[in-house]
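[step 3/7] fold_predict: job queued, chain A
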Amino acid sequence: MRIVIARYVWYQEGMYADFRSVIDRWPKPSIAQFAEDVGIHYVTAQVMRHRNSIGPDHWPAVVDAAQRRGFSEITLELLCRLRAERFKRSRSGEECAA
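[step 4/7] structure written:
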């Protein structure tokens, strides 16, 4: 019970560290559920998670799917912030280019 509460609080506070954590917000199996909700192939979702990247062309569908699931914390602003942070890390040499 405590794990569920901690996870709920973690997500509600908007502590998304990266795109992988956005995909993992979906119920298990998260990649399959994410792919179905967003309307993409499973393999596409799998590659997104592996690369830790969701292309901006998919953002509206991701946000719409998140809203339908009640994940109101997943917004275009969040996705934009995650991309900016990733770009900033890659420019500073903290992350390998994907």
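[step 5/7] annotate
The longest helix spans residues 76-91.
The chain has six helices and no strands.
exit 0
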